[in-house]
Amino acid sequence: MNLQEALKYGLSNIKLDNPQKLSYILISSLTNKSRIELMLDENITIPTHTYKEYISRLNNDEPIEYITNKVSFYSNEFFIAQGALIPRPETEILIDITCKLTKDLKSFNLAEIGVGSGIISIMLNRLCKNIHSTTASDISNQALKIASKNISNFELQDKITLVNTNLLDNINQDFDVIVSNPPYIANDYTVENNLSYEPQNALFGGVQGDEILIQIIDLFLSSKAKYLICEMGYDQKEPIKEYLKNNDNIKLSFYKDLSGFDRGFYIEK
């Protein structure tokens, strides 16, 4: 199948919006060529069977990032696969806030709870040159394998240590900064079909949805860390404010996502 045949097939068979764009993404993944390179190569051959299989998976609501094993985040390309949550653009805000809060620290030790694909720890280490060490935990061995691959791709093995544990259990180290994008969806919430492909333990946070958030807040309050930066659900601002209302030793702030919804908070001791 040549490029024009592949594009024509994609336009006729992809049952989602913008089939031409999706066709180019799939073809680029199969050929390791950019869209411009594809258009300049008249002799390019696309593997027909695999291309049709990719389109079938796409039509079954599988996220294109899992099909291509690629995701763009903070203008970098990362490896992604089922077993780790697909990074969202909103998480770039968490990274920006963390960099801003810590810019005047001479050196700091960072902990990430729920490392997933590794994108937060990796980008923070690339952007914050004052990070001394990073410990990143996850309860999922699948996620840790994906994170390890990305950490190796960015040559940060000496900076980021991965630990298979819940929260920071059995990690005997003090941290200056804790970051997390934890599960925060209520267990009975019905999600879209494409989210069924993503790890459910990275999405659902308990009966109310904020149970793991509260555990992380408690862990932070009992630790020596100065900052906690965390994502949350759009409807969890008031419960978090209520939970922390009698704590006079902290400064609590919230931030919004790109659509104007409440998306996260940060606490400074």
What order do the helices and strands come in, and which of them pair?
Blueprint: H1 3-13, H2 19-31, H3 35-40, H4 48-59, H5 64-68, E1 70-73, E2 76-79, H6 91-102, E3 108-113, H7 119-127, E4 131-138, H8 141-153, E5 160-164, E6 177-180, E7 185-186, E8 204-206, H9 211-221, E9 227-231, H10 237-243, E10 251-256, E11 262-268
Parallel strand pairs: 3-4, 3-6, 4-5, 6-9, 7-8
Antiparallel strand pairs: 1-2, 9-11, 10-11
Pfam family, one: MTS
Domain Methyltransferase small: 102-188
Enzyme class: transferase
Molecular structure report:
This protein is an alpha/beta fold and 269 residues long. The protein folds into two domains: 3-60; 91-268, 3-Layer(aba) Sandwich (Rossmann fold). The protein is built from ten helices and eleven strands. The strands form three sheets. A seven-stranded mixed β-sheet has the order 5-4-3-6-9-11-10, sandwiched between helices. A two-stranded antiparallel sheet has the order 1-2. Strands 7-8 form a two-stranded parallel ribbon. Strand 4, helix 8 and strand 5 (160-164) form a beta-alpha-beta unit. Helix 1 packs across helix 2 and helix 6 packs parallel to helix 7. The longest helix has 13 residues, at 19-31. It is elongated, with a radius of gyration of 21 Å. The model has no long low-confidence stretch (mean pLDDT 94). Pfam families: MTS, PrmC_N. Its EC number is 2.1.1.297.
